[in-house]
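INFO batch 0412 | record 1 of 1 | parsing
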Amino acid sequence: MTHRPHVAVVGGGVTGLAAARKLSRACIGGVTPSVTLLERSGRVGGKIRSRSFAGATVDVGPEALFAAAPEATRLCDELGLAEELVPTLRSNTAVWTRGRLREMPAGILGGLPDGIAPVLRSGILSPAGAARAGVDLVLPKDGGEADESVGSLVRRRLGDQALERMIDPLLGGIYGGDPDALSLKATAPRLHALAREHRSLIRGLIAAGRSTPRAQGPMLVTLPGGLQRLITRLRADLGETEVVEREGVLRIEPLPGGRHLLHTTAGRELTVDATVVATPAGAAAQMLRASVPAAAAELSEIRYTSVTVVWLAFPAGALRRPLDTTGFLVPRGERRMLTACTLASAKWPHLAAHSDRVFLRCSVGRNDPQATALGDEQLVARVVAELGEAIAALGDPLDAQVTRWQDAMPQYTVGHLERIGRLDSVLGSLPRLRLAGAAYRGVGVPQCIAQGEAAAAQIVSALS
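INFO prediction complete | emitting tokens
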């Protein structure tokens, strides 16, 4: 009789679910593997979570899919959800700096501004800051292959203001980290390439703007009713996969012949032919500390930061002046608790349809660590007060909801890609053990889906 391989997937976020789905459709030696997905919490989906709020359904984790990265939209198509995806009503955003909201230059959300003139016209930089950025044109070329922090490059080439008022708020929304610690090669590879290929960063930006075609179609899409619908449909499409909630893995013990013995939080010992670990790096380090200490050491170097999401609903007339933007970012130098605010009613058609109220999604914590110490009521009051300064008086909200994500965002610090390379090398002798998830090769939902599917494919190859 042909042996039916048994594969464990540890972690039930979107990465683990994507891996389990691909494994459940695989063929190894003429048979489909038996798949067990273990999720330590009481629910699958990880940080993708939708909740009812003020008569609508909103996302308190990721709220959108990056349309240019095909993995998520392709998966939605395979799950029968593609026709339901909706784009943003508009995609412009602003920065709250120098006393008011100033619109970000077109194209910058895609990674590069459409030329330098829009940056100067935006008023985000003061005249002195703009003059300092211009010094880049006469500085000698100094970009190289070695990694450095984003802050190091941008401060050196364009000055403090360009980093603190433009680059830092953008990266903060993605990674929630400090640009003086974040890896240039891992978090801003296009800037790294421009610095390496051009004598001047500004000249490189101009050249890239001319040669890079504008993206066609929407940049961001979502599912009305919340992205958790993707998780629900994904779980329902796992075939015969056994999904076990409230049970995680404490330790992975390699066995002779390439198999693994999993010691679970429920006191079980589970013997499997292969394992995909799709948990945060710290949990993965704990699982491997005894059996693969070199891998655990690399994993322990990956740090995380926390973020809090505050949803607010106001009466339709609460905004005292019209705002032609989908939201704004807040540089840390402004010394505000707010990190970002999305005017969700102006961004998403299904929320704009609620004509009697206005929905705002706010992120706090990165700019002021004291946010974690405030209770929900105090935090909401502080956020509402800052919003009043930014976008005119709002009054009291109709409803508020606070979601705190503790140690939720992995930090790609300087040397991250080299660290992942060393981790791959250490695990090279264990081809039936794969790691995947936001801690490694991209934090977005599409990147996590891609990593889960790639890990599953590598396991199939190893078992074949």
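INFO post-check: The radius of gyration is 23 Å.
INFO record closed
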